[in-house]
Amino acid sequence: MIGPAFYEAYANVLVSQSLLIALYRDPDRVRTTYGLNADELELLRSASPATIQLSQGIIRGKRHAVLEQSLPQTMAVLREFDGYRLVGTYVDDALLRPDLDMLRPATHGTDFVAWLTRQEARIPPRLLDLARFELAIADLRSDNAAASAARDKAVTAGAGGADLGGEARPWMTADVRVVAASIDVLALPAETTLAALAAAPPRPGGVLLRKVWDQPRPLFHRIGVATVELLLRCDGRHTVDQLLDQVAGDDAGHREGALATLRGLAGLTVLSVTRE
Amino acid sequence: MTPLHDLPHLGSGLGYRREIHQPTMEHRDRIDWLEVISEHYLFASVQGRERLAELSAAFPIVPHGIEMSIGTPGEVDEDYLDALAALVEEIDAPYFSDHLCFTRAGGVSLGSLTPLPRSRALAKELGRKAQRIQERVGVPFILENITYHVDLRTELTEAEFIAELCEHCECGLLLDLTNLHTNARNHGYDAAGFLDAIPTERVVQVHLAGGTEAHETLLDSHSSPVPEPVWALFDELLRRAPLKASLIERDQDFPDDFGELLGEVERARSAMRAAAPA
Ligand SMILES: [Fe+2]
User: How high is the ipTM of this complex?
Assistant: First the structure.
């Protein structure tokens, strides 16, 4: 009798080298871990280790392919860096996580960049700048709300921006992303290398990305540190007055500059507002 | 439910991939129909749905799934089936397809078509399950044979398993002749014997693709032209059963010259025409 326990053990053997070794050297461990009956254990052990190993490689390869699709340049740099050893540790771990399902491959890029952020000391400097930038591009490509917002804007082209009174609460529209970066990611070569990342001059600031309806690539705008900070706070929870307090304090000149930036972004329909 | 023999004759089609969108649209007069990957559109963005509408205005479309995982114990996810039924209706698909395998179990998403522990009891269980899915979606469900590497010592051979499953449902078969050729080579069995053992009258459609070889093992990478032994199997199958549709599958290493893919589409069409009763 072959039941669900068999499938659970089988799937886990296909994603774990140590479990595969245990299956042949310490089958009792596998049997008790998954509650297999004698028939199930025998069936699982009937497969030759070579064919399981081949399948393990194919399964890992699919995860690599998903990451290469959303973060192509980041992955190319990681391959150059250590031949994908670091990526391999992520993939081995990701394969055991039920929240990362291949039915929704777009979620993998976000998770991988969050993981890379936690590995900052182990990865090439500035790689995170590139990874976050590529993730924003991939995110805009797959996000339904971004596509709808871009389409609405294409239809209502030329409509004026939101009115920014002191009590208005600005937020970035769904077709926009902001990425902070320590270098000019837009100046990196199309095929980025470790050397190109290392040679990039420091340039704190960021990029504003806007999805264009019917286009696979968004529009990119270089923005300065002050604009990045301002935009990242535009989440619909803070009023214009609060935003100005946060980024400019009491300095009248700074406040005026920040307000002009907000107005400019609203005029470009990057910002919309909520009023209470 | 449309009986399999009343399904429309779709002819010779091509697997739609975004990378070849433009030439596919430009040469619509040389491609009879398109197969799209269901999961690319089930929960698609507005833009994805518009692309699908554009395709469906130009071609008959069949959704081909890779993540239904019919073999996973328990029922298939309701949301998945709802979305699939909506997709079928949206593009007015004559039928839909997925693989006879599992891709997830026990919280592990393999993302890879994985062979089942083939037994008579499982064939019966999955045949009934396939029938329920077909009735739920509302058009015929055709199941595809996979390329497999894990060689579990199972009660039934792959062909016996497929034949047994067909005893318990009215579903059709999508015979991937490249997978058949690949498995026959890798596991040392006779492909013609496989055709003898399955109910070929249930085969609605075939897949034709080319793979690679590593360490004397064939891999179904869908990255090269359809090899001659697969064309020979196609002719052999056409001698045994009338087909509704053939499909050239290419997922990577797209040729610079799109004419190569069109040539394969045309070769499949000619073979089907030559075999059709006058
Ligand atoms: Fe196939």
Answer: 0.94
Could you tell me the pLDDT band of residue A161, with boundaries at 50, 70 and 90?
A: low
Q: In this structure, is residue B110 part of a structural domain?
A: yes
Residue of A nearest to B113 (CA): A59
Domains detected in chain A: 4-122 (no CATH), 145-274 (3.90.930.60)
Q: Residue B47's closest chain A neighbor by CA? A: A147
CATH of residue B232's domain is 3.20.20.150
Pairing state of beta strands A271-274 and B245-248? unpaired
Put simply, the answer to whether B46 touches A58 (Cβ < 8 Å) is no
Q: Rounded to the nearest whole angstrom, what is the distance from the C-alpha of residue B146 to the centroid of ligand 1?
A: 7
Which spans in B114-227 are helix H?
120-137, 158-166, 177-187, 191-197
Record: contact B149-A54, CB cut-off 8 A: yes
- Could you read off the pLDDT of A196-233 as tens digits, one per residue? 999 999 999 999 999 998 888 899 999 999 999 999 99
Which tens digit of pLDDT belongs to each residue from B143-165? 999 999 999 999 999 999 999 99
In this structure, of A7-16, A165-174, A218-227, B253-262, the range with the lowest mean pLDDT score is A165-174
The Cα angle at residue A57 between residues A54 and A61, in degrees rounded to 5: 140
- Evaluate whether residue B196 is within a structural domain: yes
Computed over every residue of chain A, the mean pLDDT equals: 92
Query: Which chain residues have CB less than 5 Å from ligand 1, an ion?
Result: B 176, 207
Tokens of A59: 């399964």
Q: For B119, list phi and psi in degrees, rounded to 5.
A: -135, 165
Lowest mean pLDDT among B122-126, B204-208, B239-243: B239-243
Q: Based on the structure, what is the number of domains in chain B? A: 1
